[in-house]
């Protein structure tokens, strides 16, 4: 069903009403708040130079307000933290003048070797995280869309961001628990998410039907990747790709040619294995190049935003992601939640903290924050 | 997940690398490994962990895995649905090898296969290598 057809259906009537509310919301521009996910410091934790307190101190020092954690990494003895941890968490928030912003959840559908989790088991495991988030004063979840098989086999190329009966069943079973613990499930829209898709429409349909305030979206700015990271071309050439073919693949991606046609064209050009791999879904099409304007209708249902970034250049731009186009859409749509820095790249010569600070400076500049 | 400076790795630990003695007999050796993944996992997600030392391979049946102070056979892992390989914590691998390893340098490779449900390829294969010195 296309979006247009959907809006003509009974379920769509609610969505149409919601869409008209967007116009009202959009009359008041949003004022996003800035935060950082502790995940960004992963490399430093791994090297033994970072702790939760040091990360929070650093986030505070750069003038960001929100702190996001990943329960399975940052909660000691997850999922059974010592009783002292909750007090320690709020003490840290007070000491560094920061606020709990978001909590990241996962659904390990392939938990057992011999079978998938049932949707009851998946929902029960999510409830454990909802309760922990609630104890830590966190209202927004960066929730992974349960990675169950797609209803439509052709959708699998966008997995796990696919329309899936089992994934939706899990969410519906988890919803009463999200309400009980007052946490909003923001489904992560990471690359290769397609914003115009049956996947997104299936979620909008349920939001319209239920009018829930506890199930929506968490866009990850990787969904707006215009061009691969700067280091990609060098790496591919080292592996045996030819520069002109790599350039062709990048331009095909930018023109949204799609994986099948790009692979066919590279084959025709006599592409080698490295080039063919880069031309397909395991390569460049693991990224997605959505039009930032397509985010606008979703903004009223966005409970959190992951400010994914790879490299901030010397002239203060994100090398791969058009922040200057995406952030204004959030403002226009009336977004008042957090945009949390999520560093997943490498800036030659820079520390993790330095890389995050450069991206915070970029976001402040775009948002007109002093 | 997090690239390290060349020649430096933080996955296989220097500490804990030693032969195991039971009643004066060396029954095998022990090595500690931290995952490069960015979160901890429940141990049923582990498909297998294998160890290779100087070209000698030790399969899942020869490698016990220890989490939070308890050792398990790999065949037991699927049932342990409340046990976790916590983030940043090493797993203690106990390898059966009567006579153990000779004191001195060894090239150690550890391969861990985990089912990370959202990844395009299942299982995710992580391979860590290090040059470690065994004292005794």
Give the topology.
The complex is a heterodimer of chains A (370) and B (136).
Chain A: H1 3-8, H2 10-26, E1 33-37, H3 42-46, H4 52-61, E2 66-70, H5 71-74, H6 83-96, E3 99-105, H7 119-135, E4 140-143, H8 165-180, E5 184-189, H9 198-210, E6 215-219, H10 231-239, H11 243-254, H12 259-268, H13 273-279, E7 305-309, H14 323-332, E8 338-343, H15 352-367
Helix pairs in contact in A: 2-9, 7-8, 12-13, 14-15
Chain B: E1 18-22, E2 25-33, E3 41-42, E4 46-53, E5 56-58, E6 63-67, E7 70-72, E8 84-85, E9 91-96, E10 104-114, E11 124-134
Unreliable runs of chain B: 1-6
Q: Architecture of the largest domain in chain A in CATH?
A: Alpha-Beta Barrel
Tell me the Rg of chain A in angstroms.
21 Å
N-to-C CA distance of chain A: 45 Å
Radius of gyration of chain B: 15 Å
Structural class of chain A: alpha/beta
Average pLDDT rating of chain B = 94
Q: How many domains of chain B? A: 1
CATH superfamily of the largest domain in chain A: Divalent-metal-dependent TIM barrel enzymes
Shape label of chain B: globular
- What's the N-to-C terminus distance of chain B? 32 Å
* Strand ordering within the main sheet of chain A: 6-5-4-3-2-1-8-7
Determine the strand fraction of chain B and express it as a percent band. Answer: over 45%
Query: What's the overall geometry of chain A?
Result: globular
Strands of chain A, count: 8
The biggest beta sheet of chain B reads: 5 strands, antiparallel
Kindly identify the CATH topology of the largest domain in chain A: TIM Barrel
Order of SSEs of chain A: HHEHHEHHEHEHEHEHHHHEHEH
Count of beta strands of chain B: 11
Oligomer: heterodimer
Number of helical segments of chain A? 15
């Amino acid at each position: 069903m296309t979006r247009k057809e959907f809006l003509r259906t009974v379920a769509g009537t609610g969505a149409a009403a919601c869409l008209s509310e967007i116009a009202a919301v959009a009359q008041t521009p949003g004022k996003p708040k800035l935060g950082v996910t502790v995940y960004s410091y992963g490399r430093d934790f791994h090297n033994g130079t970072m702790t939760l307190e040091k990360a929070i101190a650093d986030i505070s020092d750069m003038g960001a307000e929100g702190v996001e954690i990943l329960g399975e990494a940052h909660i000691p003895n997850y999922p059974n933290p010592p009783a002292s941890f909750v007090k320690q968490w709020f003490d840290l928030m007070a000491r560094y003048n920061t606020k709990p912003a978001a909590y990241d959840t996962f659904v390990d559908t392939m938990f057992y070797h011999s079978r998938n989790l049932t949707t009851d088991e998946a929902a029960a495991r999510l409830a454990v995280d909802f309760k922990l988030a609630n104890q830590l004063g966190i209202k927004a979840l960066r929730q992974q869309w349960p990675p169950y098989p797609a209803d439509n086999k052709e959708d699998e190329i966008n997995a796990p961001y696919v329309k899936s009966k089992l994934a939706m069943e899990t969410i519906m079973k988890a919803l009463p628990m999200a309400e009980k613990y007052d946490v909003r499930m923001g489904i992560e829209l990471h690359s290769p998410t397609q914003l115009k898709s049956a996947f997104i429409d299936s979620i909008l349909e349920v939001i319209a039907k239920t009018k829930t305030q506890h199930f929506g979206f968490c866009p990850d700015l990787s969904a707006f990747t215009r061009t691969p990271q700067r280091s990609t071309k060098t790496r591919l050439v080292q592996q045996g790709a030819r520069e002109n073919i790599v350039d062709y693949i990048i331009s095909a991606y930018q023109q949204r040619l799609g994986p099948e046609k790009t692979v066919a064209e590279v084959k025709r050009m006599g592409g080698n294995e490295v080039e063919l791999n880069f031309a397909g879904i395991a390569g460049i099409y693991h990224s997605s190049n959505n039009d930032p304007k397509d985010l606008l209708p979703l903004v009223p249902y966005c409970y959190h935003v992951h400010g994914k970034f790879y490299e901030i250049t010397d002239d203060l731009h994100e090398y791969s992601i058009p922040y200057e186009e995406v952030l204004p859409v959030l403002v226009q749509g009336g977004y008042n939640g957090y945009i949390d820095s999520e560093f997943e790249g490498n800036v030659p010569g820079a520390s993790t903290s330095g890389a995050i600070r450069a991206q915070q400076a970029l976001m402040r500049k775009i948002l007109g924050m002093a | 997940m997090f690239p390290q400076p060349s020649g430096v790795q933080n996955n296989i630990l220097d500490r804990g690398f030693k032969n195991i003695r039971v009643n004066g007999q060396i029954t095998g050796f022990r090595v500690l490994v931290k995952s490069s993944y960015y979160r901890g996992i429940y141990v049923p997600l582990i498909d297998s962990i294998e160890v290779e030392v100087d070209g000698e391979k030790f399969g899942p049946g020869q490698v016990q895995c220890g989490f939070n102070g308890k050792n398990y056979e790999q065949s037991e892992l699927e049932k342990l649905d409340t046990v976790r390989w916590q983030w940043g914590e090493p797993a203690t691998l106990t390898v059966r090898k009567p006579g153990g390893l000779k004191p001195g340098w060894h090239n150690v490779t550890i391969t861990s296969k985990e089912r990370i449900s959202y990844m395009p390829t299942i299982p995710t294969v992580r391979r860590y290598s290090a040059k470690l010195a065994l004292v005794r």
